[in-house]
Amino acid sequence: MAAQPPNKKPAGRAGMKKELPEKFRSYKHVWVFVELERGKVHPVSWELMGEGRKLADKLGVDLAGVVLGPKSDETRQAIKETYHYGADVCYICEDPALADYRNEPYTRALTDLVNTHQPEIMLLGATTLGRDLAGSVATTLKTGLTADSTELDVDDEKSLAATRPTFGGTLLCTIHTLNFRPQMATVRPRVMAMPEPDRSRSGRMVWHSLKMDEADIVTKVLEYVADATTDDANLAYADIVVAGGMGLRVPENFRLVTRLADVLGGEYGCSRPVVQKGWLPADRQIGQTGNTIRPRLYIAAGISGAIQHRVGVEGADLIVAINTDPAAKIFEFAHMGVVADALTVLPALADAFERRLGRRAMAS
Amino acid sequence: MSEHFDAIVVGAGPSGNAAAYTMAKAGLNVLQIDRGEYPGSKNVQGAILYADALERIIPDFREHAPLERHVVEQRMWLLDEKSHTGAHYRSDDFNEDKPNRYTILRAQFDKWFSRQVRAAGALLITETTVTNLVKDDAGRVIGVETDREGGPIYADVVVLGEGVNALVGQNAGLRPELKPQHVALAVKETHFLPEQTVRDRFNLAGEDDGVVIEVVGSVSSGMVGTGFLYTNKESISIGVGCLISDFAETCIPPYELLDNFKSHPSVAPLLKGSEMKEYVAHLIPEGGYNAIPRLTGDGWVIIGDAGQFVNAVHREGSNLAMTTGRLAGESIVQLKAERKPITEANLKLYRDKLADSFVMKDLKKYRRIPALLERNKQLFTAYPKAMSQALQMFLRVDGTDKRSKESAMMRSVKRARGSWLGVATDMFKLMRAWR
Amino acid sequence: MDAPETPTDGLNIVVCIKQVPDSAQIRVHPVTNTIMRQGVPTIINPYDLFALEEAMRLRDQYGGQVTVLCMGPPMAEDALRRALGLGADKAVLITDRRFAGSDTLATSFALATALTRLGADHPVDIVFTGKQTIDGDTAQVGPGIASRLELNQLTYVSAIDTLDQGKGEIVVRRRAEGGVQVLKSKLPCLITMLEGSNEIRRGSVADMLRAARAELTVWSAEEAGVEDVMMCGLRGSPTVVKRVFAPSARDEQAEMVTVEGKQPAQIGDAIIDLIFAAQPKLEADLSAALN
Ligand SMILES: Cc1cc2nc3c(=O)[nH]c(=O)nc-3n(C[C@H](O)[C@H](O)[C@H](O)COP(=O)(O)OP(=O)(O)OC[C@H]3O[C@@H](n4cnc5c(N)ncnc54)[C@H](O)[C@@H]3O)c2cc1C
Ligand SMILES: Cc1cc2nc3c(=O)[nH]c(=O)nc-3n(C[C@H](O)[C@H](O)[C@H](O)COP(=O)(O)OP(=O)(O)OC[C@H]3O[C@@H](n4cnc5c(N)ncnc54)[C@H](O)[C@@H]3O)c2cc1C
Ligand SMILES: Nc1ncnc2c1ncn2[C@@H]1O[C@H](COP(=O)(O)O)[C@@H](O)[C@H]1O
């Protein structure tokens, strides 16, 4: 996305006639990068497969999945599922060097595949892996890349129109890649709907070999510390998140937040000033400069709902806001609002959930 | 390693900038310190810029300063709950080559002014709060301490342009604590509207033409205070301010006052559909001449709001700030040139220059006004109401004969004050204070 | 202008910082859907401060110097000066009309070119960038620079465990999706720092004075070493912004739970009723998961 002020028309460019250079005319088909990390496919890949299917159908072309990984049962399983979720073709590169994600071998494999098979559109998840890889691949290919798209479409001229938030979510912009192929975009998890898999589907396999030795690869993985084994917050993937803001006034009151999160088996988080005050660690921050969350239920207590907070929580299925100020911004995007003191409502809610769900809180 | 400067200027508001500019331009080694993220980041003003004071410092400022609109029309409104009685003065003469008054946004203006100061050679450090003055054994001010590590910074003179709160001067015992009846608290909002809408609503032909509305009456809910509404390029500044002592007494929350003002039937249509972005509160020193503290001492001098240099009657502040800053700067430059130490005695130069300028002359002229207004609140309540009632009677055609109307009007004015004697006393007091 | 002097020993670190509008203060006009820029202040991209702090910690530990590099309009000088006040040693601004309208590909080209010039005498050991910017928000410029300069790319780094200057080895913790990778790599490398990994220091009086006095290095495209200006700015950007618009406000208002005259327990129940009415599946899933 161009860095110029978005209210200025990109001089002379937007109206410029698209003329695809000869060498790109043969680029065809829609690709989705299937993100396989440590044997598990990131769900965003299937969400993208659903979206990619729609684009491919509109363009009348094939949908392909790209699976990179070590030779393993999990990789094979990922390939199978790629068809279930809508792919016609699978491009596969199996190599022990691809066991853990590292930028070098992944960039090599993916750029080689693109140069050989020439897709017109390539989509990746906007995860730490996807963004790391997409940035390298796009630069190596010298093509355009639209990050964090929230909407994808093809226009009348069959080019990809990727819409994404900008300026911290205050604006949206639609971006095209003129004159270059493939047109690349990343999409954040949980933005696109998860398609229903069709277990009867299968398709073609195209094999590719990684022309790289482990010895050529500079970066080595010494260790992998899975999140489950640490205390680190896993807000981004939590189904239920309870968060508190400055409205809770003193750090001790965050006990009310953690208790409710506990009762619901969810995660807890906070707004930025809470982190700045040192009341909670940085990995608990939700918002533009913290975690983006997409839970099924988000309960925000004593949070005013500044735009930087809003962009991090807007993907939640249901936002419940508790705030004493009826004019608080959070009520502009919450689905449900309670104008009341969070210090009373949080414990009441925890008690009520316990009653309803028939379970005593775990000791905490 | 601690540094030594010819002068340290505390504050990068209009007064501090004027002083620092004047001294740096003359070749002095000047350090300016402001606590804001950038100059002007927290500074608040209506804001009207009076060109003359700035012109004497930067003659060609109009060519590059961020000015919003020049004022072609002044409205003065007496407000009661539902009406306003107004006088409007608009003149094409204000569309002159070098207009006399402009609306500005302080955040931008201060930033620009500060750039000029730095271009003139002064050093500026921001996000740094001066916490105290450093004195030598003889009690002479020789430098400042800040909230950053790295020890004091020294200078031959510290110029205090720190604004109305003036905590540095106060903590150092250079000036007394502010008195509640000498400071007004002003709250202000900026409301954004498309440029064309601003022009349409105020009937402005020229792209940069602007309107100023000054308001007294019900806007202050019986307290000593005024309201204002200024047109910027694509926004409207609206605010109201009253004496702290009155706020304390009435317990009216300031924002409530502003909310009432904004929803007044004469004001609401001007703001309709706008987006409020900025809400700020700030103090204004309104004690006038009698509240001016001691202004100079060995190694220090006070300028701007810190010295209570505001003409509340005419809503002038920044021009007094710039003028006092300039005069202090010029005095220090002269003393330096003459190789004289910057002592209380030698700073008589600054005090004399002040006494000779419009700053002291105006403040002296109005020295009775602050006390008068404080003791005669009826000026803010009774008269606007009476005026409104009288005019309404006059304008309504309802079968009553004109003579009866006239006497009813007179009665309403009299009733406002209880007796004709009261009205006459008010007029007399006002005239005497004005002289 | 000449390149700033490079250290003879210790680390030569460059931190890319961007000046961005403070998004807290950006207004979109409700009617015209355009950005109202009046008075929007600019700040250093907040993510870049984590990178700057980490770079300065390495410098303090191993010696060397930290240069901040920014591509932007002349007023981006403010951001660089501010970085000097925080403790950076040198500042370089690359500014040229022809950089205007750069997308991430063109930005990484310009920055990579300037980095090459900066490393001409003494190679750059580590390039730091923030995780992403708050205006562009792409997280692509860092990887873009790394690809162009063939630096080892270490993104989303939360901590630097060890650095061995002699061997030119670095061990970092990198945030991956489901955990943390401990990676060993080699210098020169490019690191994008994760937010919250450290806290930016407050410069001393001496830092502030040095920053106020500093002569910044300001380079045009040519001075930065750009040979082909077609690779810069709009012309060097494959992506084009076709349309900018404000997100549509949510149609429905928040459903408000009435609290007047209710006991806390009743309020709790009322909220839960509403939640489960809106998300019927949630109740079943929750009971299943918790019991
Ligand atoms: C570049 C940048 C990036 C930022 N990134 C983030 C980010 O990632 N995440 C983030 O959260 N913020 C971020 N911010 C900060 C953001 O602008 C706001 O300042 C912040 O979100 C406000 O936090 P808050 O709502 O907790 O506090 P406040 O704005 O102080 O709001 C407190 C709220 O609590 C309510 N309240 C008070 N008492 C009670 C009570 N007893 N019961 C219930 N309610 C009560 C009040 O009515 C008020 O609405 C960022 C800012 C900038 C400039
Ligand atoms: C609502 C309102 C409307 C007004 N309208 C007008 C108008 O229309 N026209 C007009 O001419 N005047 C107006 N004024 C008055 C005018 O704003 C002031 O007179 C003027 O700003 C005074 O300038 P100054 O430099 O003395 O102080 P300030 O502008 O207050 O500047 C003081 C500076 O010092 C800094 N500072 C303070 N303490 C420290 C410290 N310890 N260390 C470091 N830095 C410090 C502050 O950050 C600030 O930048 C208005 C005032 C208000 C509040
Ligand atoms: N114009 C620029 N000048 C310097 N650094 C930049 C610039 N644009 C981006 N960066 C760096 O690249 C990182 C990622 O930016 P982005 O890809 O825009 O999200 C930022 O955190 C900066 O460190």
UniProtKB/TrEMBL annotation, chain A:
Coiled-coil residue windows: none
Keyword Electron transport: yes
Pfam families for the chain: ETF, ETF_alpha
Keyword Magnesium: no
Gene3D superfamilies: HUPs, TPP-binding domain
Any single biological process term in GO: fatty acid beta-oxidation using acyl-CoA dehydrogenase
One example GO MF annotation: flavin adenine dinucleotide binding
Residues engaged in binding FAD: 271-272, 285-289, 302-309, 323
Domain of life: Bacteria
Domain Electron transfer flavoprotein alpha/beta-subunit N-terminal, residue spans: 30-221
UniProt entry keywords in alphabetical sequence: Electron transport, FAD, Flavoprotein, Transport
Obligatory cofactor(s): FAD
Cofactor note: Binds 1 FAD per dimer.
Residue spans crossing the bilayer: none
Similarity comment text for this entry: Belongs to the ETF alpha-subunit/FixB family.
PANTHER family for this protein: ELECTRON TRANSFER FLAVOPROTEIN ALPHA, ELECTRON TRANSFER FLAVOPROTEIN SUBUNIT ALPHA, MITOCHONDRIAL
Name of this chain's protein: Electron transfer flavoprotein alpha subunit
Organism: Actibacterium naphthalenivorans
Lineage of producing organism: Bacteria, Pseudomonadati, Pseudomonadota, Alphaproteobacteria, Rhodobacterales
Automatic annotation (TrEMBL), chain B:
Keyword Flavoprotein: yes
Pfam families: ETF-QO_FixC_C, FAD_oxidored
Residues annotated as domain FixC-like C-terminal: 370-435
One GO molecular-function entry: oxidoreductase activity
Cofactor: FAD
PANTHER family listed in its UniProt record: ELECTRON TRANSFER FLAVOPROTEIN-QUINONE OXIDOREDUCTASE YDIS-RELATED (PTHR43624:SF2)
Name of the protein: Protein FixC
Organism annotation: Actibacterium naphthalenivorans
Lineage: Bacteria, Pseudomonadati, Pseudomonadota, Alphaproteobacteria, Rhodobacterales
UniProtKB/TrEMBL annotation, chain C:
Keywords (A to Z) from UniProt: Electron transport, Transport
CDD domains: ETF_beta
InterPro entries: ET-Flavoprotein_bsu_CS, ETF_a/b_N, ETF_b, ETF_beta_N, Rossmann-like_a/b/a_fold
Superkingdom of source: Bacteria
Family affiliation: Belongs to the ETF beta-subunit/FixA family.
Function: May play a role in a redox process involved in nitrogen fixation.
Name of the protein described by the UniProt record: Protein FixA
Organism: Actibacterium naphthalenivorans
